[in-house]
Every structure is written in structure tokens, then in C-alpha cells.
Design brief:
Elements lengths: L11 H17 L7 H14 L13 H13 L4 H8 L3 H4 L4 H8 L1 H12 L9 H17 L2 H15 L6 H21 L3 H15 L1 H13 L1 H22 L3 E7 L2 H11 L10 E7 L7 H15 L1 E2 L5 E2 L12 E6 L5 E8 H9 L16 H14 L5 H13 L3 E4 L5 E4 L5 H8 L1 H5 L1 E6 L2 E3 L11 E5 L16 H32 L6 H11 L4 H9 L7 H8 L4 H18 L17 E3 L1 E2 L2 E2 L2 E2 L11 E6 L3 E6 L3 H9 L4 E6 L7 E10 L4 H12 L4 E9 L2 E10 L2 H12 L4 E7 L1
Parallel strand pairs: 2-6, 12-18, 15-17
Antiparallel strand pairs: 1-2, 3-5, 4-5, 5-6, 7-8, 9-10, 9-11, 13-14, 16-17, 16-18, 19-21, 19-22, 20-21
Helix pairs in contact: 1-3, 2-4, 3-4, 3-9, 4-7, 6-7, 7-9, 8-17, 8-18, 9-11, 10-11, 10-18, 10-26, 11-12, 12-14, 13-15, 17-21, 18-21, 19-21, 21-23
Length: about 750
């Protein structure tokens, strides 16, 4: 990762003038009505307001709002109102000007957008969980009022990510984690494909700089062979399209570094075995929107005359667009050399909307379609936010489920269409229709066949909900739900009954202590929580109130046991660790505390590690790792790609510390490996030989199962460095019959 060159302030005027000229030229070359005067006015006002202020890179601050406005104009296709709002988006927050000043000078609409941007300033996340929830609520509720607020906020984040190199590493980790956790999936849901892809790649670049650069080099190295293959594949298709008299663009689009890396991680394969590195795309010109679908099908017919079609990988988003407005026809065909190739077929209008999002609809004078899936999705989000009670993290996680999902389409008995995420169940559908339907749902009919609540739905299903007044919601229903609205409505229904059970349990606990002459205390509570493995005090009361736990002689024995300092200290430490790890709080600087601004060396001190390893991802020396500080002086180490890290970076960035493995450390840590392949006599002996004899590694566990001619082997080894583990997996894959050998967390 290259560092940014120091900014030279001597050419400020020229740089600012050039940047503004690019913005103005992009606007004048668009299809929007010419309102140059108000853009000039907003530019001059913002420049004067930010006069003398510089960014961390040394650049004049005005270059940031100009860049945001340029993204809004060029990459989102928005007009003068959005451009002015982008130019003014930091004025109210960073200067003495007020929203009323903006209203007086630029009118109600621009003032409303700037006000919305000011209210969600500082990013989606603040310093604490409650602030995170509040900022996220503000962001999503604002979408319902004017979606341009969120689009400009997305442009603001994109420019901040493009200039992130000027920030200190700890800030880079936090901002990149936050971007990948919320902004990228939100961009995807809004249909901003190009921006979503760039945000993912930039986040990946700062989270895994070495892996990012390695993948970039490998993609560049394989470019020539990819181009040769594509030209061979495309030549006969071009001939057919030319014969049809179409004006078109036919190109291969390479997958992003992030998506390639995700496939490598998910499939446990090296770069060389990621075969679908790119998708071929045909974009044709068509002035008549009513003919677009027919043209797509004609092109489909020509391609499938040339190449064999994959029967299960055709995606028709022409008849039923995605909720974010995406329309296209995707097919996968067998190219030369036995390679599957995905071909995306779109009109120019479809391509514009796919790359630039629903904002591009305005370019084609479609306007804001009240029946669009996006509008319905925004209403669903607002409905969730109005539900009382969920914690900040619960809310972010359930919203995120919907942000990442690709919709299936189901129908009500009357033929109404509903977009649902993959894996949605009958119970999801019931809660989507109404809270009461979900709470009293006993079963469903899918395509007129009786099915249980847990039945997963498929595209095209017609679903009827069956209810009973005697039915009540159950906690185990949550495992049947994948939609955010379903989870939120179930939790609301359960919350009332849970409060009653907790209250009853608390009364029973207090009465038990009083009947046995035991004084209520924190020590007594800790002992009982530990005895029954409760997650918290309220969880213990719930267990007692529901009859899951019966207070009796065993409880008395634990309560009357003499205090054992070591045991009690252990329990307290475990409870403190759990609390701090779930929601750490920054401590004031003091002796012995970790300096968050410095790189923390992971090493042995007096024979003991000066860190704690997380159980969720089990890092080992050589892994890209990051530390989180709890209790001011304890560093818990996670792998950088640990799923929990994405959440922690986004929510508790101030407690993040850069970490590195000390080169002199000799600590060996356990790592788990999965090996799969074709079963044959002697394969287990060869696996053990590679590990114990060839590489002289200590094996701590081995479990192997074989059936129907294949085997699955799980093993643990002690490893001093991640590169050794990588080499071991490579050697195992070279064994005859072994198809996969990869590390698992």
C-alpha cells in the first residue's frame, strides 16, 4: 500500500478551479435542466464557509464537497438539487451557518437534504451502542423522506474511502470495517453496484493490504490468457449480433478482488482454482423500452444456438426485477476448453440503472415509482425501527440480513406479489403480512399443499397463512425466521410474556433467599448464575420463572459453600470478560494500560503471552490479526477476517489496536484443518506421514469418517506460523485422491 504524497499548497487555486470545472462540465453534459446559477452560488458559499480549513492530507477542505458533488453527478446521475446539497453537506456541521441560513439562500428542498445529512453526520456509528442505533435509525428513516440524503451520504463515504490513506492505521481499520459492515451492503440494496464494488475493494485493501496486493498482481498476470480465451469465446457471438443489426458493447468484466477473495475463503480454494474470474456482458442500444425484453430473448436464442446452456444457472430479472430495480438476463454457457462462462444481457438503460442505481431512473423520466420494491423495503425498515425495545446490535444485525439478501418472489392467495429473502419461511411470510398473523400462525398452505411454519419458500410459490386464536408465539420460532421484520415482530411479541416470566422468577428467587435466611448479594447471584450456566441475571430469573430451574438443596449447597478466593475470582473474571468483550468501554490512560495509538507486539513475557486469543477464530502467528482492548490493559487477538471483527471494528473502533507477531516468539498454537477426498486404502497413513514425518508437526486430534467412497478428516496440529500451515495444506492436496485440505476456524 503506497503512502500519500504531501500536498503542495502553492497551487491551491488551480487545483480547486480544475476540480470545480470537472464537476460543472459533468453536469452540463447530462440530461438535466441547466441550473448553473444555483450550483455556482452553492459552490461560492461553501468555498467561503470552508475558507482556510484543510483536510488531514493538507488539501483545502473545499475539495472534499466538490469531490462528493462530482460523484453525485457523474456516478449517480443526479441533478442540481443533489449537487448543491453535496457542496453544502458539511457547512452546517463544521461552520457557524445554520439550516435556516441554507433555507433562506437555497430554498426548502436543499435545506431539508442538508439538514438530513447533518443529523447523520459522523458516520452511521458513534462511540457507543445507543448512539450507533440512533444514528442508524436517523439514516434509514431519512431515506423515506428523501432518498437523496442517503445517496449523498454514500458519495461522502466513497470519497472518504478513496482518500483513506491520509488517516492513521487505527482509523483506517475502523472506517474500513464500518464501510464493509453497513455501507457496502446498503449500496448493494440501493442498486449502486459500481459503488458497492469499489467500497468492498477499498475496505479489503485496508483490512488485508498484503493479500489485496497479491491478488491484484495475480489478476494482472493472468490478463493475457483471459483476454485470449474471451476473444475466442466472443468471436462467433459478435458475428451473430452483427447479423442482427444491433448496436452493442460486448466485454468481459473481471470480478473484484474482494469477491475473488471471498470465493477463495468460502470454497477453500487457491486463486488458480477460481474459474469464474469474470462475466461476459452484452449491452445493446434500444430506444424503445417496450422492445428491450424481446431483444434480450433474441440474443439469448443466438448464444444458446452456439453454446450449451447450463440448465440451472439462468436468471430472468426481466420479468421480475430485483427489489433494487435491477433488470437483466443472466445465462451460463459452456465455452471452449470446458469452461463455464456467465453472460449478462442488458439494454443500455438497464446497464445504467444496474451500475448507478435507482437514481438513474430519473434520467429516463421514470420518476419515483411508489410501487417499486425499494419503496416497500424502506417502509419495512421504518416499521422495524418503530418497534420498541431491540438493542442496538440486534437492530443492526437484523437490518443487515435484509441488506445482504437477494429476493425471491412469492404470491398471496389473491395474487399480490411479495419480495422475500432466500430461505424465507411460511412464518416469515405471516409476519410480513401482519404481526397478529405471525403471532397466531399454526401452519400454511403452499401451492394448496399443507406445510409447517418452517417450510422454506421458493420463487413462484403461492402462500396462504393458517391461524388459530389459541396459538401463542414461541422463542424457538426465531430459528425459523430470516427476515428482519419477522424477527423484530416476534421479539416484540415475546418481550411482553418474557417480562412477566422474569418478574415471576425474580420474586421466586428473593423468596427462596428469604426463606433460607440468606442475604441477597452480588456474590450469591454470581454463584447461582455459575451453577445454572445462566447468561445474565435476567436469564437466571427467566429460567426460574419458567420452571427450567428449580431452586432447592443443590442451590443451598452452592450458596453456603465457603468463599474460595481463587474460584470466586475466576468466576468474576469470566463474567467481567464476557461483559467487556460484548461491549467494551474505553478506560482513562493509566500505568500498565495499552496505548491504542501504538503497534502492540504479541510476544511472551516471562514465558507467558501478553495477549489473549479469541476462541471464535483461533489466530496463530503469521495471521493478519487485530487486537481489541478490554479493561484498559488486556488485548484479545482476532484474525482480521473473523466475522466477529467486522462487527467490532464497526461498533467499537476506538478500542482497536494494531498488533503484530513478535518475530522471536516460539509459541505454538493449535490450528484445525479439514481434509476431504476419495477414499482408498492407505490414504490416512499418507496424511499422517505428511504431518508427522515429512513436516515433523505435533498432531493433537484426528477424526476421520468414510462412506460411499469419500472421506472427511478433521485434525488439529500445533503450529508456530501460518505459512507452515499453508505449506501443510498444499502438501496434503498433493496426495492422490485428496480434493480439499484447508484450515477451518
Amino acid at each position: 500500500m503506497t503512502s500519500q504524497q504531501p500536498y503542495n499548497p502553492q497551487n491551491d487555486e488551480q487545483v480547486i478551479t480544475d476540480a470545480y470545472k470537472v464537476l460543472l462540465d459533468s453536469y452540463l453534459n447530462s440530461n438535466h435542466r441547466r441550473k448553473v446559477e444555483i450550483i455556482e452560488k452553492a459552490y461560492n458559499f461553501a468555498r467561503e464557509a470552508h475558507k482556510g480549513v484543510r483536510r488531514r492530507s493538507g488539501e483545502p477542505y473545499i475539495l472534499h464537497p466538490i469531490a462528493v458533488a462530482t460523484i453525485v453527478s457523474v456516478e449517480m446521475g443526479l441533478g442540481s438539487t443533489s449537487i448543491c446539497s453535496a457542496l453544502l453537506h458539511d457547512v452546517v456541521e463544521d461552520t457557524d451557518y445554520t439550516v435556516e441560513d441554507i433555507r433562506h439562500l437555497f430554498g426548502d428542498k436543499i435545506a431539508e437534504i442538508v439538514d438530513g445529512l447533518t443529523k447523520i453526520s459522523g458516520g452511521i456509528f458513534g462511540d457507543g451502542a445507543s448512539a450507533q442505533a440512533e444514528n442508524f435509525r436517523k439514516l434509514l428513516l431519512t431515506m423515506g423522506n428523501d432518498i437523496r440524503v442517503v445517496l449523498i451520504k454514500m458519495a461522502d463515504r466513497l470519497h472518504n474511502m478513496r482518500t483513506l490513506q491520509s488517516m492513521p492505521p487505527a482509523k483506517q481499520y475502523k472506517i474500513a470495517g464500518e464501510t464493509l459492515y453497513i455501507y457496502a451492503p446498503l449500496a448493494h440494496r440501493l442498486g449502486l453496484f459500481a459503488i458497492k464494488t469499489e467500497l468492498e475493494d477499498l475496505s479489503f485493501k485496508y483490512n488485508h493490504p498484503e493479500t489485496f496486493e497479491t491478488l491484484k498482481r495475480k489478476i494482472a498476470t493472468s490478463e493475457a490468457s483471459r483476454n485470449t480465451f474471451f476473444e475466442e469465446f466472443a468471436a462467433p457471438i459478435r458475428e451473430r449480433l452483427d447479423r442482427m443489426g444491433l448496436q452493442y458493447e460486448f466485454k468481459a468484466r473481471v470480478k473484484s478482488c474482494y469477491s475473488i477473495w471471498k470465493k477463495m475463503e468460502t470454497k477453500h480454494v487457491p486463486f488458480e482454482e477460481v474459474y469464474d474470474l469474470y462475466a461476459a456482458r452484452i449491452v445493446f442500444e434500444c430506444d424503445d423500452e417496450s422492445l428491450e425484453k424481446r431483444r434480450c430473448m433474441d440474443i439469448y436464442s443466438e448464444i444458446t444456438d452456439l453454446y450449451k446452456l447450463h440448465p440451472s444457472r439462468t436468471r430472468d430479472w426481466l420479468s421480475t426485477p430485483k427489489p433494487n430495480g435491477y433488470r437483466a438476463l443472466h445465462i451460463t454457457v459452456m465455452g471452449s476448453h470446458g469452461t463455464w462462462v456467465e453472460v449478462q444481457i442488458r439494454s443500455r438503460r438497464m446497464d445504467d440503472i444496474a451500475e448507478r442505481g435507482l437514481a438513474a431512473h430519473w434520467k429516463y423520466k421514470i420518476g419515483e415509482d411508489e410501487d417499486s420494491g425499494l419503496t416497500a423495503w424502506l417502509r419495512t425498515i421504518q416499521d422495524i425501527l418503530k418497534q420498541p425495545g431491540p438493542t442496538a446490535m440486534d437492530m443492526l444485525d437484523t437490518i443487515k440480513l435484509d441488506l445482504f439478501s437477494n429476493a425471491i418472489v412469492v404470491f398471496s392467495p389473491k395474487g399480490d406479489l411479495f419480495n422475500m429473502p432466500p430461505g424465507a419461511t411460511v412464518l416469515d411470510f405471516a409476519f410480513t403480512l401482519h404481526s397478529e398473523l405471525g403471532a397466531h400462525c399454526i401452519a400454511g398452505k403452499v401451492n394448496r399443499q399443507l406445510v409447517p411454519l418452517s417450510q422454506q419458500l421458493a420463487s413462484g410459490d403461492q402462500v396462504e397463512v393458517l391461524t388459530s386464536r389459541s396459538q401463542v408465539p414461541q422463542p424457538e420460532w426465531e430459528s425459523m425466521l430470516v427476515t428482519a421484520v419477522g424477527q423484530a415482530r416476534l421479539r416484540q411479541a415475546l418481550r411482553h410474556s418474557r417480562r412477566q416470566v422474569v418478574h415471576r422468577g425474580e420474586e421466586m428467587y428473593k423468596r427462596f433467599l428469604a426463606d433460607n435466611n440468606i442475604e441477597p448479594s452480588n456474590d450469591a447471584m454470581i454463584k447461582v448464575i455459575a451453577l445454572y450456566h445462566a447468561a445474565s441475571k435476567d436469564d437466571l430469573y427467566r429460567m426460574i420463572g419458567s420452571g427450567e430451574v428449580v431452586l432447592g438443596e443443590l442451590t443451598l449447597q452452592r450458596l453456603r459453600r465457603k468463599k474460595n478466593g481463587t474460584l470466586l475470582g475466576f468466576l468474576r473474571d469470566k463474567l467481567r470478560l464476557k461483559t467487556a468483550d460484548a461491549a467494551p468501554t474505553e478506560q482513562p490512560a493509566a500505568d500498565g494500560q495499552v496505548d491504542l495509538k501504538k503497534v502492540y507486539d504479541l510476544r511472551l513475557v516471562d514465558g507467558k503471552p501478553n495477549y489473549e486469543l479469541s476462541d471464535c477464530c483461533k489466530p496463530i502467528p503469521g495471521d493478519d490479526v487485530v487486537g481489541f482492548v478490554i479493561d484498559g490493559n488486556r488485548v484479545v487477538v482476532h484474525k482480521m477476517d473473523c466475522p466477529r471483527v467486522a462487527r467490532l471494528k464497526a461498533t467499537h473502533g476506538p478500542l482497536l489496536v494494531q498488533t503484530r507477531w513478535d518475530e522471536t516468539t516460539t509459541v505454538r498454537l493449535p490450528a484445525s484443518v479439514r481434509v476431504e477426498g476419495i477414499d482408498r486404502q492407505g490414504v490416512l497413513l499418507e496424511i499422517i506421514s505428511v504431518i508427522s514425518t515429512t513436516m515433523v508437526l505435533d498432531m493433537r486430534r484426528l477424526n476421520i469418517e468414510a462412506y460411499d467412497g469419500v472421506f472427511h478428516c478433521d485434525l488439529d496440529v500445533l503450529i508456530a506460523d501460518a505459512t507452515i500451515l499453508t505449506d501443510m495444506c498444499r502438501r496434503l492436496r498433493s496426495i492422490k485422491g485428496v480434493n480439499m485440505a484447508a484450515r477451518v476456524s
